[in-house]
Amino acid sequence: MTVLSTFLHATHYSSPFLRTLIPSISLAYGLQGLVAIPSILGQSEKYYDLSGSLTYLSCTALSLYLPTLRARAAASLAGTTLPAWPSLLGALAGRAGAGLNWRQVVLSAAVSVWATRFQAQANKLLKSVGTYLFARISSDGHDSRFDSIRSSPPKFLGAFFAQATWVTLCLLPVLALNSLPSSILSSGFLLTDILGLLLYTGGLSFEIIADRQKSNWVAEKKEKKHDEDFLTRGLWSKSRHPNYFGEATLWTGIATVAGGVLVSNVGQVGMGLAGGLGGKAVALAMAGVSPAFVTLLLLKVSGVPLSENKYDKRYGDRKDYQDWKKNTPMFIPKF
Fold first, then answer.
1. Element (H, E) at 264
2. Which of 149, 196, 220, 253 has the most CB atoms around its CB within 10 Å?
3. Per-residue burial over 54-82, b = 16 or more CB atoms within 10 Å of its CB, e = otherwise
4. Averaged pLDDT of the chain
5. CA 18 from centre of chain
6. DSSP assignment of 148-183, as one string?
7. What is the pLDDT of residues 127-156, one digit of tens each?
8. Which residues contact residue 7 at a Cβ distance below 8 angstroms, ignoring those fewer than 6 apart?
9. What count of other Cβ atoms lies within 10 Å of the Cβ of residue 156?
10. What are the φ/ψ torsions at residue 21 (nearest 5 degrees)?
């Protein structure tokens, strides 16, 4: 029996929904565990952030194609014609028999765009300014986050499994949506589809513009075009952390699209729930945990607190900094 056959057999749950959801989540922990082994042996966090982005992409792809993999494996054992792979363009066009629903394709693409951009932007900014979101690399090439745990295998392994949990919570709305049989999903637009796509597009655009303005500001400072110590122009005059606001907003958009389907009667049936308040609460929790987790991290753990504390220590006694903080919202922009 091949590895794939063993995997498909071991995860062949009675619920079609769980047959896709559980393996997709398990993949996150499996990939992080595999990357953790050489990292622990070499006491190096070199591939930590890269493995996070790749885990996002891999789990999303598996959730999209696992039902087809199962169908093709079953057909191969039975000696019958193999089912066709899903048609992404057909799904986007709303064609019956495409193998996927357009929402599954669009949200998977939305996550892939974010993960690819995150890694590319992180690599770029790590080389130029030395910091981006969670990445804080010191001058000797090490990430200060791991200084106290790098030499402890259990703690270092815990960091990789923590990243797997982070990926799982962020991806849960998409994984849940992709775990629904595409044949039961409507190709028509819901109000939550429109609202969610607008939130995602607006949030991603906000984040991109804010990051670009920050990058340009840093470059101009290196070129001696200004002597400003902190950025107060563009979107940074509307919010002290516009990039983080965009981040939280785009995940809210993804959750809105997925949640609109999961709470519907079709979504409840596809998840194997009885419906009613209990079933809808479960669906809302699966969709809402993603933006809630991201916003909690940004506002209370790593994003805003670290940045605010750093700048308060440096410029807290300056009147221009105090005026900027007083007149500029911390998170939600004021136009």
1. none
2. 196
3. bbbebbbebbbbbbbbbebbeeeeeeeee
4. 88
5. 21
6. TTTT-HHHHHHHHHHHHHHHHHHHHHHHHHHTS-GG
7. 443 334 333 444 445 666 677 788 788 999
8. 23
9. 19
10. -65, -50
Q: Has residue 118 got a pLDDT over 80?
A: no
pLDDT at residue 27 greater than cutoff 60: yes
**Residue 148 token pair:** 């106290």
Per mean pLDDT, which range of 32-36, 43-47, 132-136, 250-254 is the poorest?
Answer: 132-136
**CB-CB contact of 102 with 86 (8 Å):** no
Q: How many other CB atoms are there within 10 angstroms of residue 281's CB atom?
A: 12
Is 107 in contact with 63 (CB distance < 8 Å)? no
Two tokens, residue 20: 């896709």
Residue with tokens 């295998």: 153
137: left (phi over 0), alpha (psi -120 to 50) or beta: beta
3-state secondary structure of 136: strand
Contact status, residue 254 vs residue 174, Cβ threshold 8 Å: yes
Q: Tell me the pTM.
A: 0.88
Residue appearing with tokens 């709303």: 94
Q: Quote the longest CA-to-CA distance of the chain.
A: 77
The mean pLDDT value for 206-210 works out to: 95
CB 31 within 8 A of CB 94: no
What the block records as the tokens of 210 is: 């804010």
Q: Look-up: residue for tokens 């794939």?
A: 4
Contact by Cβ (8 Å): 304, 244: yes
Structure tokens at 323: 């005026």
Report the alpha-carbon distance of residue 327 to residue 307 in Å, rounded: 18
Contact predicate 63/175, CB 8 Å = yes
What is the distance between the alpha carbons of residues 119 and 278, in angstroms, rounded to a whole number?
38
Residue 174 region, left (φ>0) first, then alpha (ψ -120 to 50), else beta? Answer: alpha
**302 close to 294: Cβ distance less than 8 angstroms:** no
* pLDDT tens string 47-82: 888 899 899 999 999 999 999 999 998 898 888 999
Torsion angle, alpha carbons of 34, 35, 38, 44, to 10: -160
